[in-house]
C-alpha cells in the first residue's frame, strides 16, 4: 500500500451514498480509524469537533467488552468438532489499560494480541476458554504497558512476540482464529450532515494472508442493541458453523441491515 489512507465516495441513482475507506494498519488501529471518521464528520457538518490526540507515545494496546468476547467464544468451541489443535487470538485496545487511561481519541496502533490454545486431546468447556483468555488479558496491565513504551520498549515487544511465536504460532498443524472488536466504538454516530449510517461494516482482511483466513470482526448493529459478527473462515469450517444448532441459537445468519 503506497498511501496512508485511501477514500472512495460512491453516489447512487436512488440518492444513497457509500463511503469506502482503506487505511494502513501499520500506523493506526480500528479505534484510531473511528476517531478519524468522527472528527471528519464533525468538521464537515460544522458540529463540535472531536480532536484526535497525537501525543501518545508509540505503543501496542485491547478493548475489553464482555459481551463481544463471550459471544466470540461461543464460536470457537463450535469449531472443535474438527478435533485439531487450535489457537485463538483477541486484539486488545490498550488505551483504557494505561494508568492514567489514555484519551479515547489517542491516535496510533495502540493494540496488543492475547492468545489462548486448545489441545484436541482434552475436553475443553467454554468457561475454561474464557478463564484462559481472562488470565492472558490480566497480564496486559499498566506495568506491562510501561515496559513496551518508548524506544527501549521495542526489545520487550520483540521478546513477547517471540514467546507468542514459540508457545502458539509455531504449531503448523493448528487451526488459527483471530478476533477484533469495535463494539461501543461509535461507528453509527458518524454523521456527515445527511444523517447517521444505515449500515456499516469493517474488515481487516487482506487477500492472500493466511492469518486473516479465519477471522472474526465484531461491531455494533445500526440499532445499537445487538452485535454483528463478520466471520471469515475456510470453506469447510464455515460449513460447520452455518449448521451448528448451538451457535445458531445465538444469532441470525445474514440479516438485513434495513
Report on this model:
By secondary structure, the chain is α/β, with parallel strands linked by helices. Helices cover 30% and strands 19% of the residues. The protein is built from seven helices and seven strands. A hairpin with a 6-residue loop joins strand 6 (215-220) and strand 7. The longest helix has 17 residues, at 153-169. The model is unreliable at 60-71 and 207-211 (pLDDT under 50). Keywords: Acyltransferase, Transferase.
Mean pLDDT: 76
Report the helical percentage: 25-40%
Count all strands and give the number. 7
Q: Which sequence of strands runs across the widest sheet?
A: 4-3-5-6-7
Characterize the overall form. Answer: globular
Rg over CA atoms, rounded to whole Å, is: 19 Å
Q: Quickly give the structural class.
A: alpha/beta
**Annotation field: number of helices:** 7
GO molecular function: acyltransferase activity
InterPro entries: CAT-like_dom_sf (IPR023213)
Protein name: Transferase
Organism: Anisodus acutangulus
